[in-house]
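Handover notes (outgoing to incoming on-call)

Open items:
1. Acyl dehydratase: sequence verified, structure written out, both below. Nothing else pending on this one.
2. Nothing else urgent.
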Amino acid sequence: MKAGDELPPLEIPITRTLIVAGAIASRDYQDVHHDPEAARAKGSPDVFMNILTTNGLVGRYLTDHFGPQAVLRKVAIRLGVPNYPGDTMVLTGTVEALEGDLATVRVVGANGLGHHVTGTVTLALGSAG
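Acyl dehydratase structure tokens:
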């Protein structure tokens, strides 16, 4: 592995169940993450994914790739367009730097509206790298 290497993409179908379950699991009871009528009343066409679910999916993407010994050390992500039910988010990653057992990966999650999440994640690879 070296800087510039690309990780294989991961397609994640964005279902209503994923959005609601992620909000419940992260104890985010904001109505826009589980109640379509409330979301519409607040200007959204439907419920949408919360940042904690997105953060978990980014972590899953990287640990699935680097293996069970990989440990997330720093996650710096920013949300863009929402993830709505019925869309698909495609996560991609590019290795930006390798220093000892640390890897920094640039991550992008895109859906039909554009970039849902962008950022960088630093992982300690341990014996997995």
